[in-house]
Amino acid sequence: MKFLLFGTGEYYNRYKIWFAKEEIIALIDNSKEKQGRYIDDILVIRPEDIFQYEFDVIVILSFYVKAMKRQLMNLGVEESKIYHFFDLHDLLCHSAVKREIHYYAPNYYAPMRSESDRNRKILLLSHDLTLGGPALALYHVAQVLVKRGYHAVFGSMLDGPLRRTLQEEGIPVIIDENLMIAAMEDTKWINEYSLVICNTINFHVFLSARNKKIPVVWWLHDARFFYDGIRQKVMDKILQDNLQIWSVGPIPEGAVKTFRQDFHVEDLLYGVIDQADPIGGDAECTEQSVGGNRKMRFITVGYIEHRKGQDILLEAIKCLEPDIRQRAEFFFVGENTSLLAKELIDVAKEIPEIVITGPVGREEIHSLFGHSDVLVCPSREDPMPTVAAEAMMHGVPCLLSDTTGTVKYIRDGRDGMIFQSGNAEQLKEMLANCIQGRWNLDQMGRNARKVFEKYFSLEAFEVHFMELVERIEF
Question: Of 50, 95, 257, 431, most Cβ neighbours within 10 A?
């Protein structure tokens, strides 16, 4: 089969292992900087040039599947020739070479001494081992289970930095890249577990054909955006027999119910390790002043992309009266290599109050919170951003769009502030109100800390998680 692969970023690097190099005719990318260059010795072409090549299928290796598919169809590509990486189970599964499974801490895999031991063996499946919110949430599940005397094993589609942390805590890890395209019934090594908890919408193909004798929990964290590559026929195959579905708030629940209204979904928020004490920070940076007073610091944290809405925040900042804006500083923290990030960087050059840091480590994020006054989350859609919980943990009030899942747990004007998603004018007014002291941000921060303790602390998470687990018969 002859493939064109559309996308050369993160998901190209994840899924390229499933394609024989000689079958990849070319790579497609919208970035002019990449076009005409070679990646992995494969030419990167413009979408407009695809018909210069003979191909059977174009595979979209990105979550921006809706826009990319529309772009291809506008160029004249038949819909039947366009696939997404979620479709690789049907496209490749029978022909793909099985990948080697890697076991870490193999001494753990001794036979269980008794049936009661076997009944306490739980597998936790993550789509990766990055330090992102869903993987860290599942890591905290592992900690709770070990604390409660269960045999917890962590499995993942991909390796990553979290593996080292798990190994240091004595939690066994299995890396099985086959999980990226395989169904549960094809994954025989899973049959030795008494309960499986899998994380995120990435496991919908895995659940479409499963061993229904093993209880499964599907813990959803994803916004509607991440469902764009899903086919209804695959979701229809997911049976509810012996299946529990949990959601990190209302947004993931609403997203999955656009495909399966019949799903019964229960809430389970994640827990966050309490690191409220400041770790340090750049004192010189935080002591900038206007008129002898320290500047008020606003911070937004996250990958710079359309869904996260940093362009809305930038527009609000631009519209502030200069004398008000000069009394503040605005930190944009997160991966800044996207096309949107480059546009924002160009505009921000004219606004000295804006600092674009690029990605920083977890310790530095906590340090920045320790020296910030308000977290701004301008997302167009965000299920339950971990950074909002972390900000409240530090007593930093949040200024949130109303399409952010966290707004369900705060009272506007008391625990945080809420603006209409996409409304840069309203956001501008709220920024100005903060800078001009129209809200008691200190009291709001103390209230926000109470919200963290009630809903997002590890103690609250452990209680709620164990209530749900103990209802499952395994």
Answer: 431
